[in-house]
Design goal:
The complex is a heterodimer of chains A (268) and B (263).
Chain A: H1 2-9, H2 18-41, H3 53-66, H4 68-100, H5 102-116, H6 124-131, H7 135-159, H8 163-171, H9 176-213, H10 219-228, H11 232-260
Helix pairs in contact in A: 3-11, 4-5, 4-7, 4-9, 4-10, 5-7, 6-7, 7-9, 8-9, 9-10, 9-11, 10-11
Chain B: E1 19-28, E2 31-41, E3 46-50, H1 57-65, E4 72-77, E5 80-81, E6 89-92, H2 104-112, H3 120-133, H4 149-162, E7 167-171, H5 179-195, E8 199-204, H6 207-213, E9 216-220, E10 227-232, H7 247-261
Parallel strand pairs in B: 3-8, 3-9, 6-7, 7-8
Antiparallel strand pairs in B: 1-2, 1-4, 4-5, 9-10
Helix pairs in contact in B: 2-3, 2-4, 3-4, 6-7
The chains are: A mainly alpha (268), B alpha/beta (263).
Keywords (chain A): Cell membrane, Membrane, Transmembrane, Transmembrane helix, Transport
GO cellular component, one term (chain A): plasma membrane
Transmembrane segments (chain A): 81-105, 114-133, 139-159, 201-223, 229-249
């Protein structure tokens, strides 16, 4: 009994219990936090460079009490929602068309591939000239950072749809348009959703880049302002908040996808 | 006279074949897959096409289905030249092309949406009946991911039968199933077909399956595929499992085996 148990736990990829799965990452975070507290609370590191966890927490509480934290989050979430949704609404139809039509694919893919490798950061100055420093410029940067990647990911998702599903639609005498909307698109939805989830993560990066360079509000703006006052506690606090927000949206997307697409083959 | 039907009796020789394959050759680049195929499929006839893997039997099915265009020759369906896929030629694929977001009932109903003059209620009623035919009653509201491999293929079969194509093309329909399930499927298919005859072309590499289900077995040579022999299977209907052990059945199997393996 005991020997078989020991042998089992030594196997690669032995699954964990639910409790173990929750405990393991908590331990990782706790160890990291303890290390951070150790080097800061003992005065080993100048708090100007690295403030203690409690100082960071206090800074966040202050920002929250003043209301600055909430308006900053609101502004940034608004920008990401609009910029990202515009990218999605444009990328999904184009990606689907590329995935089903060789002409569209041949005409558009090389361009997308080319633009994809242009550094979005380098476009920040240009977008400021074009669109100023208002929300519009943030939308533009988020759009540029996600649209071109997303088009190719959606196209790939559509191309993964098995040929015999398309053949089946044709033997039913369905029109091309109906085959695309009623067979191909729904079949590719789980992969498209994955693409949306991954690219939403990138959207956060581009948002902060845009807000760091030129903005008068938002999470990235607060970080830039804090740098002027050497408020490292606020900077670290905001970076943590950005991490939490990104993780939160990712988990929400993941949960929705898991629930909505549980019936598709090859997904648990 | 005895009431048993050998299946290959034809009333008139000059009746327009359901499917006519005329001097069809197919090559992919340098590779010749099919050469000078001439075949007729008659009304309510069950024809199995067998051959070594790579002999082009699935390619022939795709050409008849209109999914591939032959390099040479032509195919007619009810006298009309085949120019593409169509509702008159239903296909059951080796991997059942089911729609995962629809229930079993709605997967069948989906195929009936192209039928004119049917209300949704009528479509669902027809779908329900065809699920019963393939013994999937009680699974109307189940989804494809909840079905076993054999059940999925039964669902695909029900779906293809539901809209009554004039020819049913089956491309190694049980090839991906385990041996036991495959046997069950062969019996079920034979029962469904005997109760409700239609023109069927089934491609298979399983010789017993071909002899058990079909009225005629067409043997193709290894690549490039040509017709080696066209054999009428003179076994009574309904076919039963006991027949498999009979000398007559086994002599068909042996003969076809020899044809395929003599190289």
């Amino acid at each position: 009994m005991a020997s078989t148990k020991r042998r089992r736990s030594r196997r690669l990829r032995t699954p964990l219990s639910r409790g173990q799965r929750i405990a393991a990452p908590l331990v990782t975070f706790a160890v990291l936090l303890a290390l951070w507290a150790l080097v800061t609370e003992t005065g080993m590191v100048d708090p100007l460079f690295l403030p203690s966890p409690s100082a960071v927490a206090q800074a966040l509480v202050d920002q929250a009490a003043q209301g600055a934290l909430w308006t900053d989050i609101g502004t940034s979430v608004y920008r990401i929602t609009v910029g990202y949704l515009i990218a999605v609404v444009m990328a999904v139809p184009l990606g689907v068309m590329m995935g089903v039509n060789e002409w569209v694919l041949s005409a558009v893919e090389p361009l997308m591939d080319f633009i994809r490798y242009m550094p979005v950061v380098a476009f920040v100055p240009l977008t400021i000239i074009w669109a100023g420093t208002d929300d519009l410029q943030k939308f533009l940067i988020i759009w540029m950072g996600t649209f071109f990647q997303l088009v190719l990911l959606v196209c790939d998702a559509v191309m993964q749809v098995p040929q015999n599903l398309i053949d089946f639609g044709e033997t039913l005498g369905m029109r091309k348009h109906d085959i695309i909307t009623r067979i191909v698109f729904p079949s590719s939805l789980p992969r498209i959703w994955d693409a949306l989830r991954v690219s939403l993560g990138w959207a956060w990066t581009w948002l902060v880049v845009a807000e760091l360079v030129a903005a008068t509000s938002g999470l990235g703006y607060r970080i830039t302002v804090s740098q002027r006052y050497f408020a490292t506690d606020v900077i670290i606090g905001y970076v943590v908040v950005l991490g939490i927000l990104g993780l939160f949206f990712d988990q929400v997307m993941r949960a929705i996808g898991k629930r909505a697409f549980k019936r598709w083959e090859g997904r648990s | 006279m005895s009431g048993t039907d050998t299946g290959n009796t034809r009333t008139a020789q000059d009746v327009e074949p359901r499917i006519g394959v005329r001097d069809v050759s197919m090559s992919f680049g340098e590779l010749n897959v099919l050469e000078h195929i001439d075949l007729d499929f008659h009304e309510n006839e069950f024809v199995a096409v067998v051959g070594a893997s790579g002999c082009g039997k699935s390619t022939l099915l795709s050409i008849i289905g209109g999914l591939l265009e032959p390099t040479q020759g032509s195919v007619t369906a009810a006298g009309q030249p085949v120019t593409g896929p169509g509702r008159d030629r239903g296909i059951v694929f080796q991997q059942p092309a089911l729609l995962p977001w629809l229930s079993c009932l709605n997967n069948v109903e989906f195929a009936l949406r192209g039928e004119e003059g049917l209300s949704k209620a009528e479509r669902l009623e027809i779908a329900r009946r065809h699920l019963a035919d393939v013994k999937l009653s009680g699974f109307e509201d189940a989804y494809p991911n909840e079905l076993s491999g054999g059940m999925k293929q039964r669902l695909a079969l029900a779906r293809s039968l539901s809209y009554r194509p004039s020819v049913l093309l089956m491309d190694e329909p049980f090839g991906a199933l385990d041996a036991l399930t495959r046997q069950e499927m062969q019996i079920l298919l034979t029962q469904v077909w005997e109760a409700n005859r239609m023109t069927v072309m089934m491609v298979t590499h399983d010789i017993e399956e071909a002899v058990f289900t079909a009225d005629r077995v067409v043997v193709l040579t290894p690549r490039p595929g040509r017709i080696r022999e066209d054999i009428a299977i003179d076994l009574p209907r309904p076919r039963t499992q006991e027949m498999i052990a009979t000398e007559r059945f086994q002599s068909y199997v042996q003969h076809i085996w020899d044809l395929i393996h003599e190289g």
